[in-house]
Amino acid sequence: MILVTGATGNVGREAMRLLDGQGAGLSRSTPPPPFTGVEAVLYSPRAGTPELLTRAAEHGAKRVVVISAATVVQPVGDPRFIAEFTAAEEAARASGLEWTILHCADFASNTLAWAPQIRATGVVRGAYADAVTSTVDERDVAAVAVRVLQEAGHAGRAYLITGPQPLTQADKVRAIGAELTFEEVTPERVRQGMLAAGLPAEIPDRLLGSLADYARTPGPSSTTVAEVLGRPARTFAEWAADHAGVFSPR
């Protein structure tokens, strides 16, 4: 059986779907999660604790796949957020489980935050239009995680998981719709807008700190998805086409 933390999140939900389609035994992380029969853990640091990994190992689990961030290998933004992922990786290494770490670029699903603006005006107003990342489709992250959970040869490895193409924020808006535009505004305006919408301060801190650095130095890229899955990674344009309904006026 495979224990999935963060089963309702973007990666966890898709991993659950893939594993269920394969007839794999599944368990979602709940307080307290069931450990009997668990052989492997898909671990999302924001949905689990180091103690969960230790207990899984004590009950006979053999391996863990950690969903971490590319910022650990190419530091950008506020160091406190990098420290969260670093601590999760250290916990996996200390757990006694065979570990594999996925250092993920920003998820394509993050751009769903643009949907209200796009539906209302056709314009995304944001900071750092030229920030460059190789945004990854969260479905590819889940597919890599499921593959690594189920086959040998990945223990002790750390993989950089990105999309296939570096894109600016403006490029991504155009990929969602050729008629759409990105209008650059100040970081402070974005921050105040997010706070006014009721978001906690850590959200704009995390977003704007990373984008500021990516505007100076592009985020990393890799071919790991294709190497592990034996097929090309999905492009951001493919992700946008699959989610077109979310951005269309209602």
UniProtKB/TrEMBL annotation:
InterPro entries: Ergot_Alk_Oxidoreductase, NAD(P)-bd_dom, NAD(P)-bd_dom_sf
Pfam families given in the database record: NAD_binding_10 (PF13460)
Classification via SUPFAM superfamilies: NAD(P)-binding Rossmann-fold domains (SSF51735)
Family matches, as Gene3D superfamilies: NAD(P)-binding Rossmann-like Domain
Boundaries of every NAD(P)-binding domain copy: 48-151
Coiled-coil regions listed in the entry: none
Domain of life of the organism encoding this protein: Bacteria
UniProt cross-references to PANTHER family, sorted A to Z: PRESTALK A DIFFERENTIATION PROTEIN A (PTHR43162:SF1), PTHR43162
Protein name: NmrA family protein
